[in-house]
Design goal:
This protein is of the alpha+beta class. Helices cover 22% and strands 45% of the residues. A hairpin with a 2-residue loop joins strand 1 and strand 2.
């Protein structure tokens, strides 16, 4: 990015406090590089939070992941969450979540929000080998992937609702909720 001679942007997408542009950056050697830039609006204006080289087929409006990919996203998010709970701090979970969410919440705020799980005395790896059941997955009007479902347990189930934002080249967790339901 130090040797940019020209740029052109053919796609723009801004919703609420996030946005993206996609196009091409031309360097000093005349090489055209497909590029995507993601932005977040903060109190003092728009800030770049990601720049990524894109494949020529990259899009600002990504398609819904397959069921297998959704299950993987949910499992990984829950695994990172439970690992942080085991450590009695949401610090590692904070590093896992989307950059956009990181700018909106601190580790102490996450610790406070999830205080009940930090005090959990049970098996933090309980869900690691359980496949989540996905009940719905949609890309909403803000281009967020919203996945709802549950982890089935013997006499209960852990209900989940997770939201993901497409940052640079992959879906990243931006919202996380769960509840324990007795069956």
């Amino acid at each position: 990015m130090n040797n940019v001679q020209n740029s052109s942007w053919h796609a723009r997408n801004f919703v609420n406090n996030k946005g993206s542009i996609a196009g091409e950056v031309t360097n000093g050697e005349g090489q055209s590089i497909p590029t995507r830039m993601d932005f977040v609006k903060q109190d003092d204006g728009w800030k770049i939070y990601a720049i990524a080289k894109q494949s020529p087929k990259a899009t600002l409006n990504p398609t819904e992941p397959t069921l297998q990919q959704q299950e993987y996203l949910v499992s990984q998010s829950m695994s990172h969450f439970m690992q942080a709970a085991k450590q009695k701090s949401m610090a590692s979970f904070h590093q896992y979540i989307a950059k956009f969410w990181q700018t909106q919440i601190t580790v102490p705020e996450l610790d406070k929000a999830f205080a009940s799980i930090l005090n959990f005395k049970g098996d933090h790896a309980l869900l690691n080998n359980i496949k989540p059941s996905i009940e719905s997955a949609i890309i909403d009007e803000n281009n967020l992937l919203v996945i709802s479902g549950f982890f089935p347990l013997n006499n209960a189930r852990i209900e989940i609702k997770q939201k993901y934002i497409y940052e640079a080249t992959s879906w990243k967790l931006i919202s996380f909720s769960y509840s324990n339901e007795t069956t």
